[in-house]
């Protein structure tokens, strides 16, 4: 789930900004510790919902690992 979560956040932000994911890869680390965020979701006993402000977008990762950017559910596309 670690890389998938990372890519879903990047892909969701890219869709919201109308750009490619490669343009946002490094910026994610300026706004959050993605490794720490991933660890929260890898621990079976912790089911958080986390909301972050990233580049003027509200990014929410639900307790089930769903990623929403500005309220819109973002899914990982094939090849992502």
What does this protein look like?
This protein is an alpha+beta fold. The chain has one domain. Helix content is 36%, strand content 20%. The chain has three helices and four strands. Strands 1-2-3-4 form a four-stranded antiparallel beta sheet. A hairpin with a 2-residue loop joins strand 3 and strand 4. Helix 1 crosses helix 3. The protein is globular, with a radius of gyration of 12 Å. The chain starts with a helix and ends in a 6-residue tail after the last strand. The mean pLDDT is 81. This is Halobacterial output domain-containing protein. InterPro entries: HalOD1 (IPR040624).
Q: What separation lies between the terminal Cα atoms?
A: 13 Å
**Percent helix:** 25-40%
Give the biggest sheet. 4 strands, antiparallel
DSSP strand count: 4
How would you write the strand order of the largest sheet?
1-2-3-4
- Counting DSSP H or I runs of 4 or more residues, the number of helices is 3
Mean pLDDT reading: 81
Low-confidence stretches: none
Q: Provide the number of structural domains.
A: 1
Rg over C-alpha atoms, rounded to the nearest angstrom: 12 Å
The geometry reads as globular
The topology string of helices and strands comes to HHHEEEE
Q: In terms of topology, how is this protein built?
A:
Layout: H1 2-17, H2 28-31, H3 34-42, E1 50-54, E2 57-61, E3 67-69, E4 72-74
List the main descriptive attributes of the protein structure presented here.
4-stranded antiparallel β-sheet; 3 helices; 80 residues; 20% strand; 4 strands; alpha+beta
């Amino acid at each position: 789930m670690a890389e998938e979560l990372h890519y879903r956040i990047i892909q969701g932000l890219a869709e919201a900004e109308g750009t490619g994911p490669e343009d946002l890869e490094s910026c994610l680390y300026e706004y959050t510790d993605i490794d720490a965020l991933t660890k929260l979701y890898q621990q079976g006993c912790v089911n958080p919902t986390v909301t972050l402000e990233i580049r003027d977008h509200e990014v929410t990762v639900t307790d089930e690992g769903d990623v929403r950017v500005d309220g819109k559910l973002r899914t990982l596309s094939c090849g992502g």
